């Protein structure tokens, strides 16, 4: 009985921390403004509770990121076209990139905090690896495109959180214009053949 209550308390605390962090990162002017102490105070728990549940600030950011990303993940894994697995590759690639861009736009502060969180290279992050692996696999289904590994990296670079923040914040590029620019860039890349002197992969 005591163990069950302890698990329920831990689950309730975890939800409270995620909700508090979600609210704080949504309202903050800069990701660096949000501290673990701020989150603990907003959630009504001690800092030790956060460290036990998430390990460190980066772990908390990753957990919150995953919670927000869940609807998109479900659409990608089992949803209908153009995001779902039955979509034609040439339709799915731009849809995947648009989903990533829209997610970054909707979660600008959180995405920026995660990518700049000092937890190592953003390219080694689990969420980046998943997107890259998925995009590479879909690109490999398109005839004539060389080096799907590099192409996936290059396309995802257009959705980096720091670039999205710069365009949406400092340059004030409207959301729909940014989406259209990414769609146009992706379409031109998919329509191009191998560079001169580079053979397409078999």
Shape: globular
Query: Major β-sheet, in short?
Result: none
How many DSSP H or I helices? Answer: 10
**Average predicted local confidence, pLDDT:** 87
Report Rg.
Answer: 20 Å
Sequence of secondary-structure elements: HHHHHHHHHH
- Give the proportion of residues in helices: 55-70%
> How far from one another are the termini?
61 Å
> Residue ranges: pLDDT <50 for 5 or more in a row?
196-202
- Total DSSP E strands: 0
Strand content: under 5%
Structural class: mainly alpha
Protein name: TetR/AcrR family transcriptional regulator
Keywords: DNA-binding
InterPro entries: Homeodomain-like_sf, HTH-type_TetR-like_transc_reg, HTH_TetR
Pfam family, one: TetR_N
Explain how this protein is built.
InterPro entries: Homeodomain-like_sf (IPR009057), HTH-type_TetR-like_transc_reg (IPR050109), HTH_TetR (IPR001647). This protein is mainly alpha-helical and 202 residues long. Helices cover 70% and strands 0% of the residues. The chain is built from 10 helices and no strands.
Topology:
Layout: H1 2-27, H2 36-43, H3 47-54, H4 57-78, H5 89-106, H6 108-115, H7 126-139, H8 148-157, H9 161-170, H10 175-191
Domain HTH tetR-type: 11-72
Keywords: DNA-binding
Pfam families: TetR_N (PF00440)
In brief:
Helices cover 70% and strands 0% of the residues. The protein contains ten helices and no strands.
């Amino acid at each position: 009985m005591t163990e069950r209550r302890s698990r329920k308390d831990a689950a309730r605390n975890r939800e409270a921390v995620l909700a508090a962090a979600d609210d704080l990162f949504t309202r903050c002017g800069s990701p660096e403004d949000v501290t673990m102490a701020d989150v603990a105070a907003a959630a009504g728990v001690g800092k030790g509770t956060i460290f036990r549940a998430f390990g460190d600030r980066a772990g908390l950011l990753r957990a919150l990121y995953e919670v927000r990303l869940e609807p998109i993940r479900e659409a990608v894994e089992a949803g209908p076209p153009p995001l779902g697995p039955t979509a034609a590759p040439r339709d799915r690639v731009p849809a995947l990139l648009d989903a990533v861009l829209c997610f970054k736009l909707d979660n600008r502060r959180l995405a920026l905090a995660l990518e700049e969180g000092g937890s190592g290279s953003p390219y080694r992050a689990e969420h980046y690896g998943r997107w890259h692996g998925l995009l590479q696999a879909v690109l490999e289904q398109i005839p004539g495109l060389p080096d799907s590994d590099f192409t996936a990296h290059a396309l995802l670079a257009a959705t980096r959180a720091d670039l999205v923040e710069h365009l949406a914040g400092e340059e004030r590029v409207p959301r729909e214009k940014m989406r259209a620019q990414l769609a146009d860039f992706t379409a031109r890349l998919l329509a191009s053949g191998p560079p001169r002197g580079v053979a397409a992969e078999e």
